[in-house]
Amino acid sequence: MLEIRKEDNMKLNFIWDKKQEMDEVEIKAHPVNKEKLEPLKQELCSSQMFNVQNPKNNRKLRIDIQQVEVIVSLGHLSKIISASKEEYLLQKRLKELLTLEANGFFRINNSTILNLSQVASFRSSDHARLEVFTKNNNRYLVSRHYAKLIKEKLL
Description:
This protein is about 15% helix and about 35% strand. The chain has helices spanning about 35-45, 145-155; strands spanning about 1-5, 10-15, 50-55, 60-65, 70-75, 80, 85-90, 105-110, 110-115, 120-125, 130-135, 140.
């Protein structure tokens, strides 16, 4: 447990519990503190953004992560394909993006992370793999290593 005292005499306790779900954070506070914690709630609940680069004109822009359909590895950087079929470059490797699981993004093979909110349907494939179809009718193959987890998340 980590304890922090703020200057307004509010005490913050951080308790790290392995029994807690990985995609869940619990915050308990007295109703008197609601006004103080509202900005924190807004920040935590607001949609996250990616700082990306448009490869056509090298312009940098920010896109909402919920617009992303898939992230594909390109070595030391990644290619983002949006739900509107736009392609962008992201200066991060896939292993740096594993924290996106809290937002519904899961690795489906060694080179791809998929936004499960974009999945329309799926079916079993050869060699214990899974075929996933997105709302844009794109087809992705989930390797047998990740198939069980993805199937659980989709059901």
